[in-house]
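I am sending you the entry underneath: sequence plus fold tokens. Let me know what the token row says about the fold:
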Amino acid sequence: MSMGTWPKRVSSKRIKRCARGLRKLYFKSLDFFGDRVFHLLRLLGAVPRKSHFEKKDVKKILIIRIDRIGDVLLSTPAIRAVKESFPKAEVHLLVTGYTQDLVINNPHINKLLGYRKDKIGDDYDLAIALHPGFKQNYITFMSGARYRVGYEGQGGGVFLTDTLMDDRETRIRHEVESALEVVARVGCQTGNKSLEISVTREGERFAEHFFKKNQIKTDDRVIIMHPGARQEYIRWKKEGFAEVADQLIRCPKSKVILIGGDGEGPLLKEVASLMETRPLLALGLKLTQLVSLIKRGALFIGNSTGPMHIAAALKVPVVAIFGNTHPLDSYQEWGPWGKVIG
């Protein structure tokens, strides 16, 4: 075979598409065989039979959201809906240790639990997994809850008593609406779909010190920019951030703060090196500190990341940058929640 007749290299998009297809097949097989095992266990009396949902039986509720910053913030309207619909019930929320500070003062939660940190009881009446996944569905089962609600399609659907199909790739809607659809299965509604975020004294003290240290005055216009992102493929170009930051700093009384996580130092320094003017850098902040810093911004500019959702929850005007076309990364699902201008 000559060099000219070698098969064309398979595109990365095709490889990703094949991987997603294989993953879906794996999850379907898992649920198929798991359903038959659980059917047998129910016949033997080892697993309780599914029962009709009765709202009056619910005294203690576990809500599960064990993923990232934006996911937790976009679930706060659903959490509010649960508490408003079960005002006398005890509502517990399970999140990762990293995201706990986002909801530490949430008025709709009676107890906050850290995933892999706090022991989860087995005396719940209702367990709700707000996001598809085997782990969270399994946790609903281990909670001892008689009623267990969540998504099937990514494994663990067999652990649930009431399932929703994970159709986010074909029926595009915002993550806020997806979470609200889950709790609606047990009659939870709310007329207030705004996001909720906790602001702490520790974070406020840090932000006040940061502004004082960097001589930022109360009448200055502060622009927060986040050039980073967990996935490199959704990041906008460094040169673009540098050019926009330069133009903004030239405006009277304007200050630009570049923010980034522990591993984003080189990226921020590279953006700063491409600029003609000098920005302020805020690296490796605790979540409480990041919240209070963004809260003082007049504008937030960044990629589709957790800090973008923090800004939206704080009602700071947001310019969000989206470039990826895959449905699960779409602005229609993950865009900043709030009033859209333009």
In short: The first helix runs from residue 12 to 44. Confidence is low (pLDDT under 50) at residues 1-6. The longest strand covers residues 254-260.
